[in-house]
Write a structure and sequence with these properties.
58 residues, mainly alpha, 7 helices
Length: 58
């Protein structure tokens, strides 16, 4: 389990240092959507599912 958590940390140390708590909550979504994550961090943290739905509708 620890290796799974630290693996993305090795790939994205900068993002991890900026947003450690939220980055651990959505590691898979962050790896899949790095650009939207960097553009809309707050919205992406608070509303991960609605954000994906709005992206498809928009």
């Amino acid at each position: 389990m620890r290796y799974t958590l630290f693996f993305p940390y090795c790939l994205f140390p900068i993002a991890y240092s900026l947003f450690p708590i939220t980055y651990y909550l959505f590691p898979i979504a962050y790896s899949l959507l790095p650009i939207p994550y960097s553009l809309l961090p707050i919205t992406y943290y608070l509303l991960p599912i609605p954000y994906s739905l709005l992206k498809e509708i928009g």
